[in-house]
Design goal:
The protein is an alpha/beta fold. The chain contains 14 helices and 9 strands. It has a 7-stranded mixed beta sheet with strand order 5-4-1-6-7-9-8, sandwiched between helices. It has a two-stranded antiparallel sheet with strand order 2-3. A hairpin with a 2-residue loop joins strand 8 and strand 9. Helix 10 runs parallel beside helix 13 and helix 12 runs antiparallel to helix 13. It is globular. It binds S-adenosylmethionine. The site of S-adenosylmethionine has 19 residues, from helix 2.
């Protein structure tokens, strides 16, 4: 199944989406279009631009059991044999736990951006991206039955409307669901910053597609952006405990004292709910502290830490006490 090879505008959008520096490791959904008898156009284009070079490791994802072997054979023919890892299942089931970080990811979906994919971006993709990585996304919008995006759009038009308005004017995207997809991506990548390269639209048969590209992704994003849980509520699976354990830098055994820190990290996603109904300042302060802790642990994992494990544990414990009893100290965000 597939009709993207012939979709008007797709070729130009694809060429723009693979405009990125040479990657050590890159993820694609290369696809095989049975009607066209052709596929892997994104990888071919990426080889032309130099994004995929002689040493690039390619992570290829295809959930269709008939198409996956065709994709693998096509990549072999492109000269990538021995440098491809094929994941022949749903993207949301791909674990990126160990190994080389991803310098480039092209999440080229045929249909909707759904809740499992968004949760996967939060739990697996975000921690695995290298400093300076590029993320390109494509998905259908404007379809009836796109309940996940519609629900997120409601949240961004309701309690998070300040964020949504600011982003809409900053990024120049005004379609409700196309904007919701970008905002959801930002929630999934919360704690990371990026340069927005732009958004392009095209039609794939009856569907309206939106494509965007985020360049120069780095740790340390704006503290105030809402989490995926805050936006999508119970539709979204809870953050997996492996969120940090799955970070490439976590391949090493955690040093003494980190278990406690990891337990605190697992509790972080419950913090906004625990504090719901308390003073908004406390919620915001706890949120800031949570981000700070995540950032510190990520850099600790990457070896860029400047504190001992014991100091980090003591610091995290003080912070956690602050979240549980915000009125006692009123300095969670200090
Ligand atoms: C739009 S096509 C890929 C087009 C290709 N990137 C290009 O530039 O021509 C998407 C491919 O990924 C597969 N796919 C879509 N969503 C997926 C998901 N959530 N998990 C795994 N595979 C998926 C589809 O079966 C299809 O073959």
């Amino acid at each position: 199944m597939g009709r993207w090879m012939a979709a008007p505008g797709k070729a130009a959008v694809r060429a723009w989406q693979v405009e990125a520096p040479a990657a050590g490791r890159a993820l694609f959904l290369p696809g095989w279009d049975e009607e066209a008898g052709d596929g892997c156009a994104c990888v071919r284009e990426a080889m032309r631009t130099g994004l995929v070079g002689p040493r690039t490791q390619v992570l290829a994802v295809e959930r269709d059991p008939v198409l996956a072997p065709r994709v693998a054979a096509c990549l072999d023919e492109l000269g990538l044999a021995g440098r491809v890892r094929m994941h022949g299942r749903e993207l949301s089931r791909l674990r990126l736990g160990t190994g080389q970080p991803l310098d480039y990811a092209f999440v080229d979906l045929l249909g909707n951006l759904d809740a499992p994919t968004a949760a996967w971006m939060r739990d697996e993709l975000a921690p695995a991206l290298s400093e300076g990585a590029t993320l390109a996304m494509t998905f259908a919008y404007g379809m009836r039955g796109n309940r996940f995006l519609a629900r997120c759009a409601d949240a961004f038009e309701g309690r998070h409307s300040g964020h949504a308005r600011q982003a809409a004017s900053h990024f120049g995207i005004h379609d409700r669901l196309a904007l919701a997809g970008l905002l959801v991506t930002m929630s999934a990548l919360r704690g990371l910053s990026f340069t927005f390269a732009g958004a392009l639209h095209y039609r794939d048969g009856v569907r309206s597609m939106v494509a965007y590209r985020l360049d120069g992704i780095r740790r340390g994003g704006p503290a105030s952006w809402p989490s995926l849980e805050e936006v999508a509520g119970d539709v979204i699976p809870h953050a997996r405990a492996s969120r940090l354990a799955g970070h490439p830098g976590a391949a090493r055994r955690p040093p003494m004292g980190m278990t406690r820190v990891e337990r605190l990290l697992r509790a972080l996603d419950d913090v906004p709910a625990t504090l719901a109904g308390r003073r908004p300042g406390h919620v915001a302060a706890a949120d800031r502290a949570a981000r700070e802790l995540r950032g510190m642990v990520a850099s600790y994992r990457e070896g860029g830490h400047d504190r001992s494990a014991a100091a980090l544990k003591a610091w995290a414990t003080r912070r956690a006490r602050g979240w549980v009893h915000p009125s006692r100290r009123g300095r969670a965000g200090a």
